[in-house]
## 1
Amino acid sequence: MTGSQDRSESSADEDGVNTSRGLRTYYALLITESVSLLGSLVSGLVVSISIFRETGQATPLALVEFFSILPVIVTSGFSGALADRFDRRLLMLVANVGFVLCSSLLLLTFASDAFRLWHLYAFSCASGLFAALQRPAFQASVTMLVPDGLRDKANAWGQLTGPAARVIAPAIAALLFASIGIVGAIALDILTFVAAIVVLFMVRIPTPQATEEGRSLGGSIWRQAFDGFRYLLARPALFFLVAHSSLVTFLVFGALVLGTPYVLARTGSETQFGWVLVALNVGAVTGAIVMGAWGGTKPRVHTVFPGWIIAGVFLVLAGVAQGAVMLAATFFAFMFARPFIDAAGLSILQMKIAPDVQGRVFAAIGQITSMLAALAFLIAGPLADNVLEPARNLPVWSAVGWAVGTTPGSGMGLLLVVSGALTVLISLAFYLVPAIRRVESALPGYVPAAK
């Protein structure tokens, strides 16, 4: 811990960032983002309930997810370049205004009884575009607001927002669906975005000073859209750290996308499924709280890789679990580990990537993750439905049936086991590479300074 971290919060640290003001800005943005996320989850669930009741099909809801992630895959590189060229606060303002516009138009279609499914796909795609603009700008702003010594805890609290919202959202959605309906729920969602806009008008995010790395990557915005990939490839240890995260995330996404049908098949009960879902999200919330209080190890790689190994073990155990209690316990433990991994990994990137190129690099990482997520979504479902679940009725299944069972859901359980085992093996292999373990000492740390 540096000497600047021992000073009073009211003083400016050596990074050129007023610690107290920077932290207030970060947590103000985090709180408003959390409220906006909760509003979006609630309105999304209310809309999903209505559409499923009307169509009786899951495909429209799956298409909403696809159209939401598509803009991230296509445009993240340009969004990252914009985050490094322009005022990041302004970009977040534009994104939130865009969210208001999309939600307002969707509200009008429902209020006028003119709603069609293609409206939802179009607005989901547009919202995804604004999300692709917002995320690199926010991620790159953290470095300018929170000093390195406090960043692990700040990132851990950031990991708390999604799971906490997912614990609360279903109950609120059910209440609002019965009381104020779709139009009211979307209107409340719009108000949360308006609150975020007000906060963004009130805060200031320092602009990073230009670095040699940033100047060497100069050029047109078309060239800068691919700078994030070039930056990572030029730093092998950092590239392999990101490559590991991408590989194991692909495995985990492929397993967890089957979470709903898997738990329902194992338990045969919507009520028990609900309790398992609650346990999963409570695990993530609890892990974020503990990581926020503790702050992780130094070096941080000793939090990241052991965390993935532990998470992989519990994913294997979730694949062999055949009762609601065991499923809830293993998913709780798996999600408990995730905030430690994500917060420490994000802190490494924020410290080792030059502040004036972070928008481009985070956008590149987001593109990789989104593409692998989409691929996992496309592979996991057909693999489970057409190969693994039918295979449990074949004689050859006895080789694995002793572990994962032969009842409905066993095929999906085998996929969880394989994904978890590969996560453990890949994480061990990367962790044993000295250059990766020494990434924090080998690469220079960057000290953000406001202009």
## 2
Amino acid sequence: MKKFFIKTFGCQQNVADSERIVSYYESRGYEQVNEKDEADIIVINTCMIRDMAEERVYGYIRNLRKKKSADEQEIILTGCVVGAAARDTSGVMKKKLEKRIPDVQLLPIEEVGFEYSQKRKNKQHAWVVISNGCNNFCTFCIVPFSRGKEISRPFAEIMDEVNNLVEEGYTSITLLGQNVNSYGSDLVLNSENEESFELPDGKKVSPVMVQHLGRERIPTLFPFLLESVAKIKELESVSFVSSNPWDFSDELIDVMAKYENIDRLLHLPVQSGSSKIIKAMNRWYTREEYIALTEKIKKVIPEIKISTDIIVGFPGETEEDFEETVDLAKKIGFVKVFAACYSPRPNTVASKNLVDDLSWQEKKRRYHVLNDLINKRNMGVSKGSNWVRER
């Protein structure tokens, strides 16, 4: 029997995907091992959200090949690097892979469908994927290119999975999506009934544009899904990642307030405190709208704690722009920040049209300012919580 080992880079969505990959290979008669040296096949689930994340993948493969040749150990590459290369119509990324890692095989994650159940090691907490991909095209983000357009899983299918997990004894669930709170907008838009989308409990959602943060949006099903999960009395903890501010509706806030088992640690990426930079990032809110949203959430849910993602050194970010970010962080009182130094990603608008004009040294300085301000001050706050990194 051949043996396989999985190495996972990146976010919790990749972790969940790797749990399905285990089932994918076991269904083919392979045995999973915990030591890479024992494996006939190494499966690498990749991340390329930042240049550094992508380089770690290549470095890992180089180290593997120092020990064993392609004849001795097969390497299978999957995840975001493979997805981005497949969607790159110029062919540049595919040629890059062929040049840098010529003796690996590619496995598109789409081949590992949801018919393969996740092989979870944790028996109390489960990551449950509710959607994949993203339609937002933030100018810095490669996710729409590496994951493709946003596709929601059927509502009933997700609830069946959650109920099965509860029957197995799970008491904690995290709902996952690249833009988790836009879940179901595609289901509503593509509903066979043009007048409404009917939920399993008989509720109907009309595909009429709604106003949020001053903009029209397709209504999402996420508040209904979150409530359906949270009302399961056996679940002690329900959380979700990662959410976007422009899909954070009043209905969602009300559902969070209604159910005490919904995690009071909310991850709400802001990316910058400067409206100028937020606009350049193609994110659909202003600094003032983000602050107003968090104030509304805190008013309805006083015990809420908020974490965030921030990119420093985005093209055109001046010292004044960065100081606005620092000021916003102080105003909001984030309990944790996942800060990242900007790096251009292939095919994104920022990489094509904007000049990466800040030195790496200055980016690192700004990174450390935020890290010292928030993370060192709140060291230990995250104990017991499921902290995550957003794309």
